[in-house]
Design a protein that fits this description.
The structure holds two protein chains of two kinds. Chain A is an all-alpha fold. Chain A has two domains: 1-150, no CATH class; 156-311, no CATH class. Chain A is 74% helix and 0% strand. Chain A starts with a helix and ends with a helix. Among the domains of chain B are: 89-172 and 187-342, Rossmann fold, CATH 3.40.50.11290; 352-414, Dna Ligase, domain 1, CATH 3.30.1490.270. In chain B, 30% of the residues lie in helices and 24% in strands. Chain B contains 15 helices and 25 strands. In chain B, helix 10 (239-249) links the parallel strand 8 and strand 9 (252-254). The chains are: A mainly alpha, B alpha+beta.
């Protein structure tokens, strides 16, 4: 497979996975803004997902419609969901012969949906939850179409690697965003409520209540988000998937490239698996998340260098 | 500024307390809400009403009606205008319900043990023993932490003088709490940003509080109790509520065929074999819960459950036999119970109630039937009831005969002019009658009442019956926080 094609497919998956994560975080943060008396505001999200200056953040944060407009629909904001989808579609267009027609069509549809004024109006004026749900559904349609129609070839492997690398990055980012909630300095009631929204933001609340019987503690939440191999948004799960897809690349790779990538993924996976995190130790948790993020970016860099020829 | 036709065209009912308006204008607790909707165009409101309907369907918040031939999924009609309660009034409601529940719980413990209340002559023994929900099987059964009424839904109504009355204490398996939760989540979707700006107290803690109480009932020396929700199954009209609560608490939703009693312990059948169950939140009525002890033809219960319960091997929520305390004739004695057990004056009033087994009172009721509501003591859901001012002579005659044959099974109350609340119907605000059902949770650590409840509304014009089976709907209920 051409390096360019591999690169394009890989980024296609990353854009889509990132959009899904952003939309869900925004959705849950919006619900919290309506239903939580101790709502922490929009600033952390604007810093993480936006491109605004300090003053602009302050001016925007108080107005939900402005925040959602900027992070989802703003065409000037290079990292908005809108631009993610535009990029994803551009990528798909460039590799149409490597993805199925159905996958291309689902992306094309997504693009036309997010351009509709009606959708923006729904998110900003009417019911943001319905509007965001509608967009998330487009993303799910894409994921399902990939599952259902793509041959399990090299292209699929790069698509999957992009998806799980981005997912692991998003999980670390979202955990860092809410790291206050893990701190023992936070008042227990407030911490539990922030952790609940964190779980919702990662689609993990139902699994959590079934596993841990109602009591929300920082320890258990960490346990699930980091180590639970059955939870599709945990670090352990994403890294296990990365190892799996990486190993499928073996026969199609230069031995040196493969060894390098495999080493880095294995290292990240084991560093997560053999870490011994406690929520009490705030600095260590922060250090761990930073380190994991660094290692994930190393994997991205290795793919870039050894597979996409962008050295 | 254009005149606001939505608010100005509201036809107030004579002699009825309106929750939103009074003679001088809007009540203070509604002011913020009214300002928010004042400037909305009529089409905007209609869009919101349609959105709410769509959301209920897409969220699967439905109940199924089978008796109409085929299984039809219906939504419980929802009115978008919330019912708002100010903080001071809520505090009184909360204190009143707690007091009532405390007394009723002691009553249940007493009536199934030493029966001091009968021996001291506060209440006639005949009344208790003639109550079909009084279960002799519960005599001298010790229930965990002496709690019988874990979950109660107390129905409150407001008369035209603004006074709140308790209409019923539902102590068996009160339903509707999932609508309280869903109504709130629909409200923040149709009125973005209105809730946080209106100082409304959250109701979302309900599942956590309930689950905490359920876990606390497990007696086994195990790290954690296994709690299940026993539902009659998908054909039950409240099945949505059963599955919603099970999901919110992360507990298993079981049906009778999933449970088995062995050696007086309850187990559920799982793919990994039998797993012991410690606490059952049951939504199956007493008479169906154990075919070996109660109705033998019941397919909804679990054989042997009663004995497992009696031996203390499983906790059942709510306790069996609670029906004796929310019997409509026993209801007359709740104020006396409060005085007798707690030595306090009742905070919330009872609706004046005539027991019909007293011949003088019966005659009085027969003479004034057109001003009375007559109810069967053991029925609920708005069935078995006669409202004097809109009944035909024939219906009245039928009731007279039935009452004379079995006076214990009836009570009579004056017609309470339920308060009204504006509803958005056909593009205009119209007054409709409402009640209020807050949900109280009684656990080992005390009684919690989440600030809110289910406001049921009689959507038929002029109707006083709010039950969902009789064309009732519901509203979101806002309890405001203390003013800063």
């Amino acid at each position: 497979m051409l390096s360019r094609v591999a690169d394009t497919i890989y980024w296609l998956a990353r854009y889509l996975e990132r959009s899904q994560a952003m939309l869900q975080v925004l959705r849950i943060n919006y619900i919290a803004s309506q239903d939580e008396q101790a709502f922490e505001g929009w600033k952390p999200l604007l810093y993480t997902y936006g491109d605004l200056t300090e003053e602009e953040v302050t001016a925007t944060a108080a107005d939900t419609a402005l925040v959602l407009g900027h992070l989802i629909f703003d065409r000037e904001n290079a990292v908005s969901v809108y631009n993610n989808i535009v990029q994803g579609r551009e990528n798909a267009r460039a590799v149409q012969d490597h993805i199925t027609k159905e996958v291309w069509l689902s992306l094309n549809d997504y693009y036309h949906v997010i351009r509709q004024d009606e959708v923006a109006r729904q998110v900003q004026v009417e019911d943001p939850v319905s509007g965001i749900d509608f967009l998330i559904k487009q993303g799910l349609l894409f994921a399902g179409t990939v599952q259902h129609t793509m041959p399990r070839d090299e292209g699929y492997v790069f698509l999957s690697m992009g998806k799980f690398l981005e997912r692991a990055l998003q999980t670390t980012d979202i955990m860092r965003l809410k790291r206050e909630a893990f701190s023992p300095a936070t008042e227990p009631h407030q911490s539990a409520s922030a952790l609940r929204y964190l779980l919702y933001a990662l689609f993990g609340y139902e699994l959590y209540t079934k596993t841990y019987k109602g009591v929300i503690t920082p320890e258990n939440v960490l346990e699930m988000l980091v180590y639970d191999e059955d939870f599709p948004h945990s670090l352990a799960y994403s890294l296990a998937q990365l190892v799996r897809y990486c190993e499928r690349l073996r026969d199609d790779s230069l031995p040196e490239s493969y060894d390098h990538l495999h080493f880095l993924i294995g290292k990240a996976k084991n560093n997560v698996a053999y870490s011994s995190l406690t929520a009490i130790d705030g600095p260590a948790l922060e250090q761990f998340l930073k380190q994991t993020r660094g290692e994930l970016l190393d994997i991205a860099a290795a793919l870039n260098t050894y597979y996409f020829g962008n050295s | 500024m254009p005149e606001n036709t939505l608010l100005n065209s509201y036809p107030e009912l004579a002699n009825v307390w309106d929750e939103m308006f009074r003679a001088e204008g809007t009540r203070p607790e509604y002011r913020h809400f009214v300002t928010a909707i004042e400037n909305l165009a009529g089409t905007e409101m209609t869009r919101k009403a349609e959105l709410a309907k769509k959301l209920f369907l897409s969220q699967g918040v439905t109940f199924t009606v089978y008796n109409s031939g085929e299984g039809i999924e219906k939504i419980f009609p929802f009115d978008i205008i919330p019912r708002i309660i100010n903080h001071a009034e809520w505090q009184r409601i909360e204190a009143g319900i707690k007091q009532r529940l405390k007394a009723l719980n002691i009553f249940l413990k007493d009536i199934y043990h030493q029966q001091f209340i009968l021996k001291d002559g506060i209440m006639p023994a005949a009344l208790v023993y003639s109550c079909p929900q009084f279960l002799r099987e519960m005599m001298n059964v010790n229930v965990p932490h002496d709690i019988y009424t874990h979950i109660a839904g107390v129905d409150l109504i407001r008369d035209n003088d603004g006074e709140l009355y308790v209409l019923e204490d539902n102590l068996r398996t009160p339903s509707g709490v999932s609508y309280m939760l869903e109504n709130r989540s629909i409200t923040y979707r149709i009125f973005p940003d209105l809730l946080p700006k209106s100082n409304v107290l959250p109701v979302k803690d309900y599942p956590d509080l309930l689950f905490r109480n359920l876990l606390a009932l497990g007696s086994r020396q195990a790290s954690e109790a296994t709690v299940v929700l026993l539902s009659p199954g998908i054909y039950n009209s409240a099945y949505f509520e059963h599955s919603a609560l099970a999901r919110l608490m992360g507990i298993r939703l079981v049906e009778s065929r999933d449970l088995i009693v062995h050696n007086h312990f309850v187990y559920m059948k799982t793919t990994r074999g039998l797993e012991r169950v410690d606490v059952i939140y049951r939504r199956v009525d007493d008479e169906y819960i154990d075919p070996l002890v109660f109705r033998p033809d019941s397919a909804l219960g679990v054989s042997g459950l009663y004995w497992a319960y009696r031996k203390g091997n499983v906790a059942i929520v709510n306790a069996m036999g609670n029906g004796v305390a929310d019997d409509k004739a026993v209801y007359c004695y709740v104020p006396d119970m409060i005085r007798y057990y707690l030595n306090e004056e009742p905070i919330l009033k009872n609706v004046p109630t005539h027991r019909l087994d007293d011949p003088d009172k019966r005659q009085h009721v027969f003479d004034n039937m057109e001003r009375m509501v007559i109810k069967r003591t053991n029925e609920s859901g708005g069935y078995g009831m006669l409202i004097g001012n809109c009944a035909t002579d024939e219906e009245m005659a039928d009731f007279r005969t039935a009452i004379s044959q079995d006076p214990r099974s009836f009570i009579a109350q004056p017609i309470i002019n339920l308060s009204s609340s504006p509803c958005y119907i056909d593009g205009v605000l119209q007054p409709r009658r409402v009640d209020l059902r807050p949900f109280a949770l009684y656990g080992p650590s005390g009684i919690d009442i989440v600030p809110g409840g289910l406001t049921r509304v009689a959507l038929r014009e002029g109707s006083l019956v709010v039950n969902s089976s009789q064309g009732g709907g519901s509203k979101d209920t806002w309890v405001l926080g203390p003013e800063n």
